[in-house]
């Protein structure tokens, strides 16, 4: 049975390191141009060099997004950029536009190309066409059921890799090709600058009937008619592995370190638990519980099992479900004194109960009894952003362990 690649988002270098540390097999990221997440941290060429070395030193893979829908002027400087990516030794590029594909084939014919989900591949005829054009991997459209994915895999060559999204935000537009943002906020979603108007609050009003609202909404506040719930396929890992998906993709280059680490860890555990003994596998509900500890919208299986219904939209709010705070990162630990050095990410107070999240083990729960600042003064709380402090720990911890606490 094929072991799928677990592919994680890396909005910056810190997120890249945590994605790998918590179990990702590969990461995807963008340079400062040509990607569809203009507001993510993204990577300069020097940072990309550092990222490639860091990833390859750990025998992992790194993919670069070039998935904008380009206009003529966007090709200026692109040839040089592609040559740089080839020289860096990236494992592939993610592209949506045939023009960019043609340019890459001319400039760097050995560079592997993944067709982005913005390529809207929903059938095996399209998949075979792109494979004949030299595409190595296809990121399938989100608008597919698991059975449709199986049909595509069954009818395409084994040399064509198939990647599919398993977790993250869902776009109301077809495979992410959106015009709403450009129309309403003058920000082009197809060039990475989406304002997310699909999350805004709407009511329907006919032009000649001012202030007379039609019943598309729940109450006087209106309704979030475009607001999809977040995709979560952690319970469907066995089916996706069985049909032969090569790569499981997590959305979220704009998300936090805590989000990336938590989501990667949960899916890493689910994949490994299934592959360890498929015949006796029972879904571990604690993995889903972990996914509920990050900031998220309500979850849906999207198109995976059947066509979405009204249950897959959230009509009352675009706010996130947030039940836990990410409060700190372990920087160091002294075994003799059992004291950890921690970087604060949100406020901790004496007598708080916290959880320490680790990559390959269950989380540890403990009460906060003693904390000191860098001048060895006792603390009642950690109010300053990213302050460095020390805490007495009940159990051994490691650098890059993450601290969280339930919201009161």
- State the secondary-structure class: alpha/beta
DSSP strand (E) fraction? 15-25%
Distance between the termini: 44 Å
CATH superfamily of the largest domain: Aldolase class I
| Second rung of CATH, namely the architecture of the largest domain | Alpha-Beta Barrel
CATH class of the largest domain, please? Answer: Alpha Beta
| Biggest beta sheet summary | 8 strands, parallel, barrel
Report low-confidence residues grouped into runs of 5 or more: none
Average pLDDT value? Answer: 89
Task: Return Rg in Å.
Answer: 23 Å
- DSSP strand count: 19
What is the name of the CATH topology of the largest domain?
Answer: TIM Barrel
- How much helix is in the residues? 10-25%
What assembly state would you assign to the polypeptide chains in this entry? single chain
Strand order of the largest sheet: 1-2-3-4-5-6-7-11
Which H/E pattern describes the elements? EHEHEHEHEHEHEHEEEHEHHEEEEEEEE
List the domain count as a whole number.
2
Instruction: Give the overall form.
Output: globular
Number of helices: 10
Family: Belongs to the peptidase U32 family.
Keywords: Hydrolase, Protease
InterPro entries: Peptidase_U32 (IPR001539), Peptidase_U32_C (IPR032525), RNA/ubiquinone_mod_enzymes (IPR051454)
Pfam family, one: Peptidase_U32_C
């Amino acid at each position: 049975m094929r072991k799928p690649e677990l592919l994680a988002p890396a909005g910056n270098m810190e997120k890249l390191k945590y994605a790998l540390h918590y179990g990702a097999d590969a990461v995807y990221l963008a340079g400062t141009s040509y990607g569809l997440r203009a507001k993510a941290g993204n990577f300069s060429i020097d940072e990309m060099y550092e990222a490639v070395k860091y990833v390859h030193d750990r025998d992992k893979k790194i993919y670069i997004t070039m998935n904008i829908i380009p206009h003529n002027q966007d090709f200026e400087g692109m040839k040089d950029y592609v040559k740089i990516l080839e020289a860096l030794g990236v494992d592939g590029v993610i592209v949506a536009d045939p023009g960019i594909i043609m340019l890459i084939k001319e400039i760097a014919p050995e560079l592997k190309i993944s067709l982005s989900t913005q390529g809207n591949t929903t059938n095996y005829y399209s998949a075979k066409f792109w494979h004949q054009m030299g595409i190595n991997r296809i990121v399938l459209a989100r608008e597919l059921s698991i059975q449709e994915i199986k049909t595509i895999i069954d009818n395409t060559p084994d040399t064509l890799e198939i990647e599919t999204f398993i977790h993250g935000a869902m776009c109301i537009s077809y495979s992410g090709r959106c015009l709403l943002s450009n129309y309403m906020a003058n920000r082009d979603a197809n060039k990475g600058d989406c304002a997310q108007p699909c999350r805004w609050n709407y009511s329907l009003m006919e032009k000649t009937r001012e202030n007379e609202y039609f019943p598309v909404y729940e109450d006087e506040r209106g309704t979030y008619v475009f607001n999809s719930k977040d995709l979560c396929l952690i319970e469907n890992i066995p089916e996706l592995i069985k049909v032969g998906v090569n790569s499981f993709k997590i959305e979220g280059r704009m998300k936090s370190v805590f989000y990336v680490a938590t989501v990667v860890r949960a899916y890493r555990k689910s994949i490994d638990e299934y592959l360890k003994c498929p015949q006796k596998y029972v879904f571990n509900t604690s993995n889903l519980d972990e996914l509920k500890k990050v900031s998220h919208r309500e979850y849906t299986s999207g198109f995976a099992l059947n066509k979405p219904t009204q249950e897959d939209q959230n009509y009352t709010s675009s706010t996130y479900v947030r039940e836990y705070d990410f409060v700190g990162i372990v920087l160091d630990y002294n075994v003799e004194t059992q004291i950890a050095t921690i970087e604060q990410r949100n406020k901790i107070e004496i007598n708080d109960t916290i959880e320490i999240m680790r990559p390959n083990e269950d989380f540890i729960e403990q009460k906060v009894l003693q904390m000191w600042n860098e001048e060895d003064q006792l603390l009642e709380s950690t109010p300053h952003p990213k302050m460095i402090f020390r805490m007495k720990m009940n159990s051994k911890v490691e650098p890059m362990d993450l601290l969280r606490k339930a919201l009161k």
